[in-house]
Amino acid sequence: MASYKPVVVQSFPKLGEKITQDTLYWKNYKTPVQIKEFGAVNKIDFSPVPPYNYAVTASSRIHIYGRYSQEPIKTFSRFKDAAYCATYRDDGKLLVAGSEEGVVRLFDITGRAALRQFDGHTKAVHVVDFLSDKYRVVSGADDYTSKVWDIPSATAVVSYSEHTDYVRCGCISKLNADLFVTGSYDHTVKVFDARREKSVMTVEHGQPVESVLLFPSGGLLVSAGGRYVKVWDILRGGQLLVSLKNHHKTVTCLCLSSSGQRLLSGSLDRHVKIYSTTSYKVVHSFNYAASILSLALAPEDETIVVGMTNGVLNVRHRKHEESKERLPKKKRPAYRTFVKGRNYMPKQEDFFVSKPVRSHLKKYDKLLKSFQVSKALDTVLQARNKTPEITVAVMQELNRRGTLKNALAGRDETQLSVLMSFLIRYVVEPRFAPMLIKVAEMIIDIYLPVVGQSAVIDKQFLKLQEIIEKEIDYQTELLEVLGMMDALFATMTMKKATSLEKNKTNGILRVLEQDMSN
Amino acid sequence: MVVQEPLRVVRCGGSKLSGARAAFSADAKYLLCASGDYVKVYSTVTEECVHVLQGHSNLVTGIQLNPQNHMQLYSCSLDGTIKLWDFTDGILIKTFVVGYKLYAFYMLADSEGSVFVIIPRKNEDASDSFQLASVKLPKTPDQEVEAKDLSLILDDIGQSPKCTAFGREGEYVASVRGLHLLVYFFKKKKINRFPLSATSRKGANNYFTCVACHPKEDCIASGHKDGKIRLWRNFNHKREYTFSTLHWHHDQVMDLAFSVEGNSLLSGGVESVLVQWRDGSDCKKEFLPRLGSTIEHISASLDGSFYCTSHSENKITIIHSNLRVSAVIQGLVKGSDVKTGLVVDPRTKALVLNGKPGHVQFYCLKTDKQLYNLDIVQQEYIHQVGLNQVELVKAAFSTRGSWLATVEQREEKETELELQMKLWNYDEQTQSFTLNTRINMPHEGHVTALCFRDTDELEDRTPTLVTAGKDGRFKVWVLENDSDAEKPSMGWSCDFVGSYHNYPANTCCFSEDGSLLAVSFERTVTVWDSDTWDLKCTFCHPPGKIRNLCFGRLSCSKYLLGTTDNGFLCCWNLLSCALEWSAQLNIMVLQPDPLSENIAAFSRLVDSSDLFIFKPNEPRPFCIQRNLCRERVQWAVFIPRDVPESVGSEKHQWLSRSQLYVLTETQDLLTFSTKSAEERLTPSSKQLAVEESLLVTPFYLLLGKHRHQQKSKENATLGTAVFQSHVTQDSPAIKELLHTPAHVLPSASFLCSIFINSMLISKENKSAEEVVDEVEMDSEKAEDESDEDVELNEVEQDINTTAFLGEITPKLSKSQEKELRKIRRMDYSWIAAL
What we know:
By secondary structure, chain A is α+β, with helices and mostly antiparallel strands.
């Protein structure tokens, strides 16, 4: 006849984001490593050559970190005041950095002292970079100017002073050795050609520009400032392609993934958002402990390094498959044993003897099948509470059978304390609350006469009471908020209706006016 | 031309199979069981119904094989008759008229000519005390015999046949009632009475429920209300009797039966577990659990190879003696209250309604058979009295039948309501429904209505479901794609929640094209646009709580109909938003026909239900059927016919395309037909088919094929000679003449005309039909022959005969033909006078 039907364990839909390829990709990082710097981290730059060390600029120092090192493998500390924007050259041998005193310094990675020193800016230089011909350096400073320096002669080749506010960000074109972009607090982004005296193109961002980025193809320009990230099409004369508003505080840094398919933006709102560069939709987002100032991705997205205002450097390394294989392999029967005879096709003259399929039942199901209710409840409580849904499902089943009270009664101190700790942990969880509140009521009914005999149990009862009181307060607060929101919504809809009416009247008036004029 | 046939109300869906203990035939090939007024003969192997023995005019209460002749069966009924049947051919042999209501029937092997029956004491309905009496069956050759020779044996016994049992070789009879066990010894004419105390200290409930006697030893087994079984021995002494107790059942023991040899005792009860006690000891017991529902009767076959249990859910389970279920005979489950109503599965055209607890059953009306059960609740059913079970309360199919929505609820107290809505998707591959989405608590209160939006095949609209709840809301659920990287999946989620002044929502329904949704809130009908979910208009003309709501169809799609609980039927025009007409009728059920504009309304007066068929554009009903039934009509449904039936009268034209089925308060399934009862009889000449579809043994494979080939060869060579025999075999009249036992045949004069008619050559089909009619009318006992079959045979035979005659006699002259026809038309009834 019909076989025993096991207890149905309800599955609850996972709230929040759905699992996409992106979430799988971007979640595949190990737990972050935190490194404390001396001040706010304003720039992180990866060396373009293996072993992909990275330079971190914070306060008056530049630290070079190895890929997995927690300690800096090298430090440049010849700065009187804050250093800014330490950037590698394409071959990874030279490093350039700006400084608060307005001097741009060029370092050899192996040396300690500066190779060159470019003087000429009168105020702090916040942005420096190598042009892609490797022999020139571009810098932008708070004196509203940006300059191109020749490395061998250490002299300024050209100087632009078109910006009307601090120049705080910039980037170079990888394709054209003369092309670079600067963003300024005067809300504009300007494209310069080192061969010409004037800017080639200006786009109006609308907010002080904090970061600019050129796509590898050189055709698209990304600017970040205020809460906006804007994408411009340079080839069509600086036309706005898309404006993204996904952060609720100023966006401070931009970065492209190694494939160029994803754009990352970090913001003072402590989030890093990842956009698809085809749809410009947020596909994933990271959460950090403090406001983000700088962000860098290692080649092949092996490492994400984020620098924050509190001077903490957050390093995440990608997980690799090999780490899983390291687990000791259990000795299992060969695959053959499982498939033996499975794919044998019976011939026509074969006599087929059917064997009833034995269904495997869980331990609690076996006990429930034989009506051992207390034992069934014990089994699911002992499962280290990793699967509270199963515990609650069994409680529900017992309740349906009308034997929940029997299962709860007759427990000694240790058994009861297990049950109580389960209740304390999960009673306020909305999924389980209706069932667990019922259980709590029953327990109170059953064990009321013995309260006061055991200190452990009494403590737990008090704790349960406390949790429930807290929850009640919380719920009332929520209801208040809901009421406020309702009132707000009500007024909003009212306004809409009136504004519509106004429009209507305006229209009618206009018609009347026209009639009059006619 | 066509006579105005009256509209007939026909009961369908079969009656209870578990009315009395079923009996096996001697070879255990057939199972005989009482089913309402009939006795049904089932094949134990194929589970098919082979014969229906009709003849009793009231409930059949007991059946037993004739101990002298195992091919015969006695049955007794509340109509006061005992009938003797030949069940292999399905023929009534004899009727004994006793004149009392017979509640049970016992016959012993050695007491030939007398049987034992249980009759009410004063032949009154009201009296609750009954007597066991023996009836002498007179040996006269007549068909109908009066058997009035009654002699009282035991007085004041229980009515149920389970409460009385006959002991070893008929030496004694044991009967239980209340707290007493009575044993009457026939030889000594002595009654021993063994009382039990009502309750003991342990809270036992000692009331007897059933009794069985050991076939070989002096041992009586009795079942009790508290689940105990007592085995009584040594009961021929008044004082020194002993009993041992077996206790496993936690509730009332419903029936007990000993195996043929008596070495094992079977017991069953509410737990729906069959328990086999070996050697009457407490430790040697075996179980067959989860039989579905309460076991009401247990019986064993004479050869000891089978047991069978009758269940309260209209089911008989045939069980091997090694406690393996071998076959299940399942009727329409009419267990509890049908809350889902009658729903039609658009795919199979099967009737879908509550079945076993927690299941929906798919019931095929054409073959009168249950197709399958779908487990909705998917929880272990605990058989315990007073337990709050999860009930299935609502079910609905989408237009194409690809989605099934069900709502189940469990109500512990007023405040604690557990609701679950499940959406099932039809899987083409497995040909069954699979669970797609489960929604906990779709509403805060009871779900009152559930309907899918009708979608056309061409239009690619998302499937939409609307639920209305007592919490004053209606919710719109749509199918959404929520697949992600790991697995693609489709699920249902809530799209819109609507309410109207927080009144509880009663019903909801979509218009035919799915563009409008009507939801009734207490006394107000609201109409919503199904694209934007905007409230379009409200109707509340005659004050009263809305009971039913439906849109008109086809040409009447601009009308909305509603009924109120204060006795109004209203029709609103949706274009003018005004009341078109209203009528004062206490309508209980309103059901539109999906294929026409017709709407069926069932009204309820004091103690009768009436049916009105009308079109919404005309307030005058074109068909009224008064006094449909005495009970309240609970649900009704139109089921589209596969082939439109030709209905003679204009008035009953509404029956041609779909059939109306009605479920009453007492769980009777009724339908309407214009045909007479004889015409409606389903072709039950299945017997041959059943026999042929029996197991093909290896022996047959070896020999049968060979023979078959030989036969066909012979046929080919012998040609005409074989043909001759073929003709004689095919004629139904001849067949009947040859196959019916001689002693039950009517007189030869009676059959003469039919016989001759069947031998005559007929030229036209019309004459053949006449012959058929005559056959039908004259041979009332030939109920096995369906008209269709006969007709077919006849026509075939006609063609053959003419061809055959054409070969032998070149041509009949016209005058000869006329002569023949004249002879055929002549009345042969004069033969009867001779």
